[in-house]
Design goal:
By secondary structure, the chain is mostly beta strands. The chain has a single domain, classed as Methylamine Dehydrogenase, Chain H (7 Propeller), CATH 2.130.10. About 0% of the residues lie in helices and about 40% in strands. It has two helices and 34 strands. It has a five-stranded antiparallel β-sheet with strand order 1-14-13-12-11, with no helix packed on it. Strand 32 and strand 33 form a beta hairpin.
Length: about 400
């Protein structure tokens, strides 16, 4: 029996009164920092959209970083007055997502429409973004406006513990929370109604965040648990279940939903071994879609060059992207499992932020954190067209 306590599965808190949208307000538009180079090995175009000395990171790999029309990519920054920011990909200009009430965090872009869901303190907000890109940003900056709608205010005794994540039909957001007594759990939030609904409560020590909805089933979500990492909840019932039983010493980590009730994750059985695997929830079958490599006597650094992390699956089902601890970025063909190197050398083994690579909406670009220029920068790589056409 799973060591999980159910918590008022079908009970809901009173629906929050929907807040009317505020009028459009302008967002700060900052000059471009963009630097574009070609990868010397693959020819992929690398657009370093941030080059500031402070730390900049793309959103976590299983969140949506790009607006629905791919016009803007979200990232976070530790620079002064940073927080949640964005880059207009046509001009390279940077956008600051903040108001007098404070900055935003825990963000994800909506599946449809140029909207961003985020947290501001205890408020869950939706920003609808409109962009008028400049034809000459050096002379006249672009115009970016937002219309804010407060989806809800989290009730007392509940603190956010993860980023927001939208379900596949756009009606709900998921959020990992900590209750007043210190126990963690998962709630859903109605995008239009503001209703906060308890899904499950999890014993302390067995919840490790990473709450995310299925990309295709609006009722399934997952979180990282223990002793089994892959925990899935049907929100109509609220009972978490381990969908993959781990063996002692087996690596299971960095999960991301794919198509047809499948989850990709990193897994292996030997020190330093990490394949990209795919679990089919309908059959219980697991297979390797991105092979790592292992050999006797391989050092940690050597093994890290050929084993993969942070697998991010493209919604179309064709590709899975992954990275390694040397900052190499690859894509695996979902049909043939062939690996294609997109770019390499964006991290020094043993130090710096991981790339945490993820896709744009068109399936032609990848965003990740790079240390190639000496700092922690956000990089957008355009995959060579010939590479995407290969099997």
């Amino acid at each position: 029996m799973l060591n999980v306590m159910l918590f008022a599965v079908f009970a809901s808190l009173p629906a929050a009164k929907p807040h009317a949208p505020t009028g459009a307000f302008a967002l700060d538009v900052l000059p471009s920092e963009r630097r574009i180079v070609k990868d010397a090995v693959t020819g992929a175009e690398l657009a370093f959209v941030t080059t500031d000395p402070e730390v900049d990171n793309n959103l976590y790999f299983h969140e949506r970083s790009f607006l629905a029309d791919d016009s803007l990519v979200l990232f976070t920054s530790r620079r002064k007055a940073g927080g949640l920011m964005g880059c207009l990909l046509v001009t390279g200009e940077l956008i600051r997502f903040s108001t007098d009430e404070g900055g935003l965090h825990g963000a994800t872009a909506a599946r449809r429409g140029n909207r961003v869901f985020a947290l501001r303190g205890r408020s869950v907000v939706e920003w609808t973004i409109s962009i008028r890109a400049s034809s000459d940003a050096m002379r006249a900056p672009s115009k970016v406006e937002a219309v804010e709608r407060i989806v809800c205010t989290l009730p007392a005794g509940m603190s956010p513990a993860t980023s927001l994540n939208e379900n596949s039909d756009g009606r709900l957001l998921s959020l990992g929370v900590v209750f007043a007594d210190g126990a963690p759990g998962v709630v859903t939030i109605g995008v239009r109604t503001g209703r906060v609904r308890h899904v499950c409560r999890v014993p302390e020590g067995s919840f490790h965040g990473h709450v995310q909805f299925s990309r295709t089933n609006p009722n399934l979500l997952s979180y990282a648990g223990s002793p089994n990492r892959l925990m899935v909840v049907d929100i109509r019932g609220g009972a978490p279940r381990a969908v993959y039983s781990e063996l002692t010493g087996e690596l299971v980590t960095h999960e991301c939903w794919w198509v047809r009730d499948q989850i990709v994750f990193c897994g292996g059985h030997r020190r330093g071994e990490s394949h990209v695997k795919c679990l089919d929830l309908r059959t219980g079958e697991a297979r390797i879609v991105g092979a790592g490599s292992w050999w006797p006597g391989g050092t940690d650094s050597e093994l890290a060059k050929w084993n993969w992390w942070h697998p991010c699956a493209l919604d179309s089902g064709r590709w899975v992207a992954a990275d390694n601890w040397h900052g190499d970025i690859v894509i695996f063909d979902g049909l043939s499992t062939r690996m294609h190197l997109v770019t390499q050398g964006h991290r020094t083994y043993g130090g710096g932020d991981h790339p945490h690579v993820s896709w744009d909406r068109s399936g032609t670009r990848l965003v990740f954190t790079s240390h190639r220029l000496g700092g922690s920068d956000v990089c957008v790589a355009t995959i060579p067209a010939a590479m995407l056409g290969r099997r």
